[in-house]
């Protein structure tokens, strides 16, 4: 009876608890950067709801070979809070646009010690349930050629060789056919001349 009364009260007063839906967070998978350069780490999210005024973004960093993560950035209530004591002191800048669901950060003056995994988490209340997304950063003295570039170059060379082989094949066929035609015409002309000479001798 009490349960029925409670439900009736909720319906009558229009007090319907807001549903919490999942939020999908996106970052890159792996980024390469040069020593001493700056890099933008992108973070965005998808939510069925309009962007809330209470949207939040949080970034954490876990160095390669470590199990522990440290907080390096947090955005909430329209304010950005950056790391003031850790390894990214004075090197993290918020370059996102919360109104467009962009929580990107810029990391300046990269060092080899910055190699590691950066994880972004976002909340768009009441959508607060979602899996954080991570991107791995690799800092090099010279950026290596990625496997995709090498694969593309190999495929390009192979296709180029195949096209060249086909062109040579048809060119050879054309030259052979032309040679055969020339010989046939030459033999036909020779026979025609011999027949004409034979008829002249008989006369």
UniProtKB/TrEMBL annotation:
<keyword id="KW-1133">Transmembrane helix</keyword>
<feature type="transmembrane region" description="Helical">
    <location>
        <begin position="145"/>
        <end position="171"/>
    </location>
</feature>
<dbReference type="Pfam" id="PF07686">
    <property type="entry name" value="V-set"/>
</dbReference>
<feature type="signal peptide">
    <location>
        <begin position="1"/>
        <end position="22"/>
    </location>
</feature>
<dbReference type="GO" id="GO:0042552">
    <property type="term" value="P:myelination"/>
</dbReference>
<dbReference type="InterPro" id="IPR036179">
    <property type="entry name" value="Ig-like_dom_sf"/>
</dbReference>
<dbReference type="InterPro" id="IPR007110">
    <property type="entry name" value="Ig-like_dom"/>
</dbReference>
<dbReference type="InterPro" id="IPR000920">
    <property type="entry name" value="Myelin_P0-rel"/>
</dbReference>
<dbReference type="InterPro" id="IPR003599">
    <property type="entry name" value="Ig_sub"/>
</dbReference>
<comment type="similarity">
    <text>Belongs to the myelin P0 protein family.</text>
</comment>
<dbReference type="InterPro" id="IPR013106">
    <property type="entry name" value="Ig_V-set"/>
</dbReference>
<keyword id="KW-0325">Glycoprotein</keyword>
<keyword id="KW-0732">Signal</keyword>
<dbReference type="InterPro" id="IPR013783">
    <property type="entry name" value="Ig-like_fold"/>
</dbReference>
<keyword id="KW-1015">Disulfide bond</keyword>
<feature type="domain" description="Ig-like">
    <location>
        <begin position="17"/>
        <end position="136"/>
    </location>
</feature>
<keyword id="KW-0393">Immunoglobulin domain</keyword>
<dbReference type="GO" id="GO:0005886">
    <property type="term" value="C:plasma membrane"/>
</dbReference>
<keyword id="KW-0472">Membrane</keyword>
<protein>
    <submittedName>
        <fullName>Myelin protein P0 isoform X4</fullName>
    </submittedName>
</protein>
<keyword id="KW-0812">Transmembrane</keyword>
């Amino acid at each position: 009876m009490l349960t029925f009364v409670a439900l009736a009260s909720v319906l009558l007063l229009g007090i319907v608890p807001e549903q919490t839906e999942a939020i999908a967070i996106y970052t890159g998978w792996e980024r390469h950067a040069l020593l001493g350069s700056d890099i933008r780490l992108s973070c965005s999210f998808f939510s069925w709801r309009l962007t809330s005024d209470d949207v939040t973004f949080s970034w954490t960093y876990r160095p390669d070979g470590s199990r522990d993560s440290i907080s390096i950035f947090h955005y909430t209530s329209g304010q950005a809070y950056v790391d003031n004591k850790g390894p990214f002191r004075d090197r993290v800048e918020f370059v996102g646009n919360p109104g467009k669901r962009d929580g990107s950060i810029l990391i300046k003056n990269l060092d080899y010690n910055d190699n590691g995994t950066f994880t972004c988490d976002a909340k768009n209340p009441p959508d607060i349930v979602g899996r954080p997304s991570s991107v791995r950063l690799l800092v090099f003295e010279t950026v290596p050629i990625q496997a995709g570039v090498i694969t593309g170059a190999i495929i390009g060379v192979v296709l180029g060789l195949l096209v060249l082989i086909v062109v040579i094949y048809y060119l050879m066929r054309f030259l052979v056919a032309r040679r055969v035609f020339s010989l046939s015409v030459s033999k036909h002309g020779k026979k025609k001349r011999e027949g004409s000479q034979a008829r002249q001798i008989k006369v």
